[in-house]
Amino acid sequence: MTEPRPPRRPAGLLILGATVALFGVAAAGAARGRLGHATASVLSSAKEAAKSRAPERAAAAVPAGSAPSAGAAASSVVAERPAPFVIVAAGDVNLGRECGQAILEDPRYDPFRFMGPIWGDADLRFANLESQLSDQDGETQSPHNRLIFTGPPGGAETLAQAGVAVVSTANNHAWDYGRGALLETLDNLARARVAKAGTGRTLAEAYEPAIVEVRGRRVAVVAVTQIWNAGPIEQHEGRNYVAWARPGRVQAALERARRESDFVILSYHGGVEYVDSPTDATRRFIDGALKTGLVDVVIGHHPHVPQGVAFRRGRPVFYSLGNFVFAGHTWAPWTLVGFAARLELGAEHELKVSACPFALDGHLPKPIGPSEPQSAEARAHLVGTSASVGDAVVGAADARGCFPLEPQTR
Q: Which of 28, 184, 190, 341 could connect to 134 by a Cys-Cys bridge, CB 3.0–4.6 Å?
């Protein structure tokens, strides 16, 4: 982490044409500042789409206080207007199992190589790192339990080479190979200069926001989990190293993030797997976080299927983006389709929000183009799941295949 900067008061943000004063009112004591079921047709079309796309790649941002990498995405100027500041966030990444073996065999292996159409111009790329990164003598999955896995140490370089600037490590797999592997994951990410949020050598460090600076903007990520595999976390050693979704601790982390950055992302790991709507507990936690007035966007993951998008208190909430680099199941077709959240911050502080679909070929995400048949199926699913959580309007696919999202106007 860098030394704290003086408080910054960002300008108001326009969300898709509707003016929203950012963080004009915070909670008491807070810092002031700115559905439907899947079908077999989706499975078959997603699998066909996933086999047909050509690779593209680019680089992204670096942690605050570091010099930008040579591969950072370049900006273009159109009609003397600066290009928007682009953030692309995606869901669950598992660099263990078969992907981990591929990395061990070839350190240059790039599971993100097809993502260029969606994030090739991104200034900052974020994902939930669902696997530890640790040396288990070539093992990337427990021989006794397929739900225990780890990426190899070189997975940190895999993320860095793909331009992933920051990851969440607060999730139910943070302890798969124990405390030592958790700490080794932190060391490996630091070596590759990939910022992390959600775990730490102490609980205080786990709640620290990760802050990344690029193109003169500072973006903060606060990451928490509400799911734990090893029994009640209050009775587990992991409670000392993993940021749990405790409202008081989360608000303190968000207050710090607000003071030290221009844009705040809350990463939330929770809900129920393979269910396409958020639980009541998820809704309550997210609503409570938004009431603080300290969050610009919520990025959700864990269910392994995409859930809906809503605008709460003027802020976009992606309840679950689904799988990213994570093999799905043929018996659960929507585990084979995911979304990336694309956020474009304009020169006048307006925010353009979209959801970009991709199909999974094994663990490889491949964008779904606007003219492909499964684009319409992905949009219909997003419309249905979003209707169950709010009133987001889902537009037609743009040239990237992304669906613009706007709050319902009344």
A: 184
**Binned average pLDDT, 10 residues per bin, the chain of 410 residues:** 38 34 35 35 42 40 51 46 93 98 98 98 98 98 97 98 98 98 98 98 98 96 97 96 98 98 97 97 98 98 98 96 97 98 89 98 98 97 96 95 91
Pairing state between β 364-367 and 350-361? antiparallel
Residues 298, 268: Cα–Cα separation, whole Å:
7
With H, G, I as helix, E, B as strand and everything else as coil, classify residue 365. Answer: strand
Q: How many CB atoms lie within 10 A of CB 169?
A: 30
The backbone torsions φ and ψ at residue 315, rounded to the nearest 5 degrees and listed phi first, read -110, 140
Question: In this structure, what DSSP letter does residue 389 have?
Answer: T
The domains located in the chain, with CATH, are 13-407 (3.60.21.10)
> Which residue in the block uniquely carries the two structure tokens 């994570």?
326
- Give the SS3 label for residue 272: coil
Q: What is the pTM of this model?
A: 0.83
Question: What is the token pair recorded at 219?
Answer: 């973006």
What does the chain come to in residues? 410
With contact defined as beta carbons under 8 Å apart, do 108 and 160 qualify?
no
> How far is Cα 349 from Cα 321, in angstroms, rounded to an integer?
25
Q: Pull the structure tokens for residue 409.
A: 């106007």
- Measured between its terminal Cα atoms, the distance across the chain in Å is 43
| Residues contacting residue 79 through CB under 8 Å, at least 6 positions apart | none
